[in-house]
Design goal:
By secondary structure, this protein is of the alpha+beta class. 23% of the residues lie in helices and 11% in strands. It starts with 14 loop residues before the first strand and ends in an 18-residue tail after the last strand.
Length: 132
């Protein structure tokens, strides 16, 4: 089971834009400060590309709920097999997998500018971060 920690990646959208800006945040230092560790980049389970870079944008796909051994998957349904808290911890792990894939592609996580979709009700609890 994945221990629940303060969340660094509440919701990582499918597209990210790269930007050249002065370094104000040291993302990897912040990840470590939160007690989190990036897993190794997941190996695709099928014939697809986990990250695609085009111009100043990258697109992530195909990240699944691996367990910490990065070989087996969490399987089941929230409310039946997992509590809401357990599902949130699994989602956080997937966020770390996504971040690991970004790091492998970009080398420096401080190049990432996050863009999220703006959901409509009934999803009032999703975060809405403000772009810098």
């Amino acid at each position: 089971m994945i221990a629940r920690r303060p969340s660094l990646l509440l919701a990582l959208g499918p597209s990210l834009r790269l930007r050249a800006a002065p370094r104000m945040v040291h993302t990897e230092a912040k990840i470590a400060e939160l007690g989190l560790k990036l897993p190794p980049m997941p190996v695709p389970l099928a014939s697809y590309v986990p990250i695609l870079r085009t111009g100043n944008m990258v697109f992530l796909s195909g990240h699944v709920p691996f367990k910490e051994d990065m070989k087996t998957l969490h399987q089941g349904k929230v409310g039946v097999d997992y509590t809401t808290e357990e599902a949130a911890a699994i989602a956080e792990w997937i966020g770390l997998e996504l971040t690991s894939t970004l790091k492998a592609e970009l080398g420096d996580l401080d190049k990432v500018f996050l863009t999220l979709p703006h959901p409509t009700p009934p999803y009032p609890t999703l975060p809405h971060p403000t772009a810098p």
